[in-house]
Amino acid sequence: MEAMDGAARCLEALRLQGRICNCRPLEFNTRLLEVATSVGSKMLVRRVRLRLADIYTALGDNNAAAKLKRTAATYVAPTCARCREPLAETAEPLAALPCAHIVHHA
């Protein structure tokens, strides 16, 4: 999924540069959203929904963009089970407790 997300970000960059049309990033991100939803990767679902909202805004479909932004807002960032601080979306050392809670490694 990380590789697919990287490809989606590259397509988005090309779209913003005007080197490709909106159709390929729209199709790829829609498929990535299906995969991320089926796996249960909530943060990836949130990122893809926001990316799709930007594409729909560029296409002039503000209703679809607003709907995607509203649904993306329902996904809140996960927090550390110990300190209650949000876990970063960037790579950081994490640890899993035997009860399946995720905490900062430190």
UniProtKB/TrEMBL annotation:
Entries under InterPro entries matching the protein: RAPsyn
Membrane-spanning segments: none
GO cellular component: neuromuscular junction; plasma membrane
GO molecular function, one term: acetylcholine receptor binding
Any single biological process term in GO: synaptic transmission, cholinergic
Source organism superkingdom: Eukaryota
Protein's UniProt name: RING-type domain-containing protein
Highest classification ranks of the organism: Eukaryota, Metazoa, Ecdysozoa, Arthropoda, Hexapoda
